[in-house]
Amino acid sequence: MSPTTAATLETPPTTRHTKRHLLSSADLDRDQIKAILDTAAEMHTVQSREVKKLPTLRGRTVVNLFFEDSTRTRSSFEIAGKWLSADVINVSAKGSSTSKGESLRDTVLTIAAMGVDALVIRHSASGAAHQVAQWVDAHVVNAGDGMHEHPTQALLDAYSMQQRLGDLEGRHVAIVGDLTHSRVVRSNLITLRTLGAKVTLVAPPTLMPSGIGAWAASDGFELSHDLDAVLPTADAVMMLRVQRERMSGGFFPTAREYTVGYGLTRPRLETLTRANPDAVICHPGPMNRGLEIAADAADAAQSLVLDQVSAGVAVRMSVLYHLLSGEETQS
Ligand code: CP
After folding, report:
1. Which residues line ligand 1 (CB under 6 A)?
2. I need a surface site. Which of 34, 186, 247, 284 has the fewest CB within 10 A?
């Protein structure tokens, strides 16, 4: 797809990706990712307008169905839909009939029966979004399914890195931390490799997912247990949250030992900056400050943490636009 202009954002795209849903980062090839990121760049200009509103999705209804907590993803999908003039409804497990025992299928069919155009779903079960897409005619966007995937997070991460680093082809991205419990890492791996980035996954042996070696060997990314060895060659360092709520056992002896081995501490920030003054730091949030990332690194000039949040709105506007806009004109 050729880049859209601000003027054409108010009309349907001339070319759009052919998938009905966005369930996995693997749904998108390189051209489709680039089309979404190009449109996101145009959508980003809306944030600085006095009137933050495009008529693009007027008359469309988007339901955010969140069965897990969220600050960034839910708010940014809501803002994205509203800035595109869609009607946006938020449904969360707490306060819905789910708390009375209604099943996921019945909840989804009930909402779909109201005539919604898109369902944005977050659920603790891996595969939930795929399952929902089989039950409804509405477009489905995966806003995080268990430890499986978070495709719009990977898109906004790629967008944020690209804004600072330019084309990600050949750039070295280190993804560091709790790989085992992360849905962000899987989606980022797919998107970054599709864009031609070099990726190194860094984690203690206890937090390296089983089977990752075979994937790394077939796809050509690296694995390491030594953050200090990887940092000097990194263009971007993506720190992952230690997901204690998903841990059933002891994955590291103490928080202090984890930070010593795998935290982006002030000395490591200095190493990174000395080796590559243009290197950037990402974190999908929410952050455990002082555990996987020191405040010095989270708030450093190299940190993209708030850029990622801002990009989240633009990228989700772009995703909704590509899925929904001009749909009635498609064969
Ligand atoms: N990164 C992310 O998904 O954050 P939330 O859980 O706040 O949505």
Report:
1. 70-73, 144, 153, 284-286
2. 247
The boundaries of every CATH 3.40.50.1370 domain in the chain are 3-150+310-324, 151-309
Q: What is the pLDDT of residue 252?
A: 85
For the chain, give the number of residues: 331
- Asked if residues 174 and 229 have their Cβ atoms less than 8 Å apart, the reply is no
Contacts of 30 (CB under 8 A, 6+ apart): 194, 195, 196
Architecture field, domain 151-309: 3-Layer(aba) Sandwich (3.40)
Distance in Å, CA 81 to ligand 1 centroid:
17
CATH superfamily of 3-150+310-324: Aspartate/ornithine carbamoyltransferase (3.40.50.1370)
Containing 38, the helix (H) or strand (E) segment is helix 30-44
Is 183 labelled a binding residue?
yes
* Residue of 71, 150, 306 to test ligand 1 pocket, by largest number of atoms within 8 Å of CB: 71
| Per-residue pLDDT tens over the stretch 205-215 | 999 998 999 99
Please give the structure tokens belonging to residue 234: 């990194």
Confirm or deny that 100 is annotated as ligand binding. yes
Render pLDDT for 134-186 as a digit per residue (tens, 0 to 9).
999 999 999 999 999 999 999 999 999 999 999 999 999 999 999 999 999 99
153 annotated to bind ligand: yes
